[in-house]
Amino acid sequence: MKNLSFILVLFFVTLVGCSPQINDIYIAPSGVNTSQANKNPVFNSIKEGIDKVNLLREEGYDDLITLHLLAGDHRLFSPIVISANLGPLKIIGAGSDKTSVKGSEKIDIVWEKHDDEIWVANVTKDVGFDQLFVDGKMQILARYPNYSELGGHWQGHAADAISKERVNTWANPKGAIVHAMHRGEWGGFHFEVSGVDEDGGLILKGGHQNNRPSEMHATYRMVENVFEELDTAGEWYLDKESSRLYYWPIAGTDLKKAEFEVVRQKHLFEIVGSEENPVENVVIEGIRFEHAQRTVMEKYEPLLRSDWMMYRGAAVFIEGTENVSINDCEFTELGGNAIFVSNYNRGTIISNNHIHQIGASAVSFVGSPNAVRSPSFQYGQYVELSEMDTIVGPKTNSYPSNSLVDNNLIHRIGRVEKQTAGVQIAMAMKITISNNSIYDVPRAGINIGDGTWGGHIIDYNDVFNTVLESGDHGAFNSWGRDRFWHPNRNELDKLVIDNPEMPKWDAIHTTIIRNNRFRCDHGWDIDLDDGSSNYHIYNNVCLNGGLKFREGFNRIAENNILVNNGFHPHVWFKESKDVFMRNIVFTEHKDIRLQGWGKEVDYNFFPDKATLLKTQEKGVDVHSIYGDPLFIDSKIGNYSLVNDSPAIEVGFNSFSTDVYGVKNESLKMLAKSPEIPKIFFGVSSDSSAEYKWLGSVLKNIETMAERSASGLDNTAGVLILSIEENSTIARSELKVNDVIISSEEDEITTVEDLMKSFQNNNWKGKLNLQVIRNQKEISVILITK
């Protein structure tokens, strides 16, 4: 039959008097004008086009074939599978603003009134879905608390979300979904309700989505898919047992004319081959990918000993490929991951894409544990040295390598899952992440889960507004709990003394972080956590959170600018071989439990004499100096140095500080930039200036009038001049005209003192303050996010 079909196509082309152009195939959505096809074959679905390519390959046609997806909505009723025999192949849309691939179906609905606000309709019994779109806009699954863009975690959370008192008001909670943060805020958990126990509590299944199990966070909880919580416009609820859809329309919605779409597919494209028979030379471009299901209740797997568990799947799933490119596409309104590069892949390029409004991670490179020698999968696990495979490097080739993520705009991701990243790397080698703008993310913008096998290059990225819904992380975050790492620190110390090259058994190539701009207001700008080893970090601008090195080896940080913060060395080994030199810092080093100061910590530039002397008391920075670094214009974020900057005396080399993020002009017009901070410390600061902080405006108490009005004992403290609505400060007990006099038991006399305390303790997520209000001293706990 396939041969006959091919012959008929050739006969048809001959009959109409033109030569066959089998290198171009056109796919037209239903009802779309096909004039663009220019007498080439036209098919009514992408699947039919893929079947045609299969037929041509079977007939021995080896040249490049291009599938042109004409403008319109291409709806999928199963994932498009691109297998090894199809390349070389291009699938090209008319532009991401014109051509969309959707995992949703349009449904016709006849509505009737349920009550004054809610309408109800029967739906087909086999139509199950987890997202509803009305006239192209996603509606809110009935939830408590109600959705609020400024509501923090899940855009609204409450301690009583699943209290027995609230559960008692629900007639049938079966099928409800509970979302809760990890107690340590290391990601989230997701549960499905299967019933109610005899004590009135929920019976939950799930909670498998985090590799460091814990109880639910006491406050950061949200529940959805409960009929009784359908109490505001834009919410909906599907009663699966009765196949009845309930909906509270947004004002102005004409239910008779509105278009209703329900999401049915988990994956949209699956590009899948193997190392032995890879998919080769496939290009996807000019397409908007929309409407894929959530995957929170799917099977998750641990990514070695990082905190991560992850679903190995995405809207576009890539495995067993060579030279696959995804360019100039848009990924939006997806319930799970956008792009997942799994196991063996070489030469993957992901460039010039706009990825936003995503349930989970944007771009993930994750290899197979089968490629890891003697892998461990949870924090407390360890393979004894006597049983360990001690060969250096990977065991197999089942991992992504030599791949590029360039010039992508990534924002508003992790809308459902919180253990997510703009770019995630685990069990991979030599991945380059460059020229990306990544912001508005619940956790890290860029995350590396382990040291296997390094060689990554991270440069010219703009990463900010990060760690919005998690804790103890950074804008850039990494771990390195590799073969050398042991959960018992005494055992770990002995291992690395006896085997000093062991950290490089897995981190075999140096990872380079250079020429980036990072900002994290709820953690560190660059956070190299447990075991992270073999890094070279230079020419970065860190706008708020500073740089942290925790227990690892062979890391060099040089020529970085750490605005309003500094260096955080934590629990170092005696012979870590770490280097911190020729950096511009604004605070003393914040060391915690060090056994030694590494190979060299010196020749750094400090803001003032007191800060330098306090650091030198630690036995480091003998040749470091202090002063005004003389930035060209720090107010607009230009931290390049003037020619006679004193920082040059310690070997600091000025570098360009205006080259971050997307360069693609159309994406650049859409991209945001981070807020540029005022400098708090040193001679560059202004003691009389007003400073913005967490939605408030602050100033130093400077005059006798200010002192008298506040009832202070001396002319010192920090006065709150104003507070923005819905800001972090507005959600606290602080008020306008309060004077902050103490933070974490440290005396606060100036804004500089407050900022030092904030930078030292912000990773905890809260500050214990003493405040003068109405001439009385009170205690206030400030939650800093």
Layout of helices and strands:
Elements: H1 2-15, E1 24-27, E2 42-43, H2 46-58, E3 65-69, E4 72-75, E5 80-82, E6 89-93, E7 99-102, E8 104-107, E9 112-113, E10 119-122, E11 132-134, E12 137-138, E13 140-141, E14 143-144, H3 164-167, E15 177-182, E16 188-196, E17 202-206, E18 216-224, E19 235-239, E20 244-247, E21 260-263, E22 269-272, E23 279-285, E24 288-292, E25 301-302, E26 309-310, E27 316-327, E28 330-334, E29 339-346, E30 349-351, E31 354-358, E32 363-366, E33 400-406, E34 409-411, E35 423-426, E36 429-434, E37 437-439, E38 446-448, E39 457-459, E40 462-464, E41 474-478, H4 489-498, E42 511-514, E43 517-518, E44 524-528, E45 535-538, E46 541-542, E47 547-550, E48 555-558, E49 561-562, E50 567-570, E51 579-581, E52 600-602, E53 605-606, H5 609-616, E54 625-626, E55 631-633, E56 638-641, H6 665-670, E57 691-693, E58 696-700, H7 704-710, E59 718-723, E60 739-743, E61 746-747, H8 751-761, E62 766-773, E63 776-783
Parallel strand pairs: 1-2, 1-3, 3-6, 4-7, 5-22, 6-23, 7-24, 13-19, 22-27, 23-27, 24-28, 27-29, 27-30, 28-31, 29-32, 29-33, 30-33, 31-34, 32-35, 33-36, 34-37, 35-38, 36-39, 37-40, 38-41, 39-42, 40-43, 41-44, 42-45, 43-46, 44-47, 45-48, 46-49, 47-50, 48-51, 51-52, 53-54
Antiparallel strand pairs: 8-21, 9-10, 10-20, 11-12, 11-21, 14-18, 15-16, 15-18, 16-17, 19-20, 25-26, 55-56, 57-58, 58-59, 59-60, 60-61, 60-62, 62-63
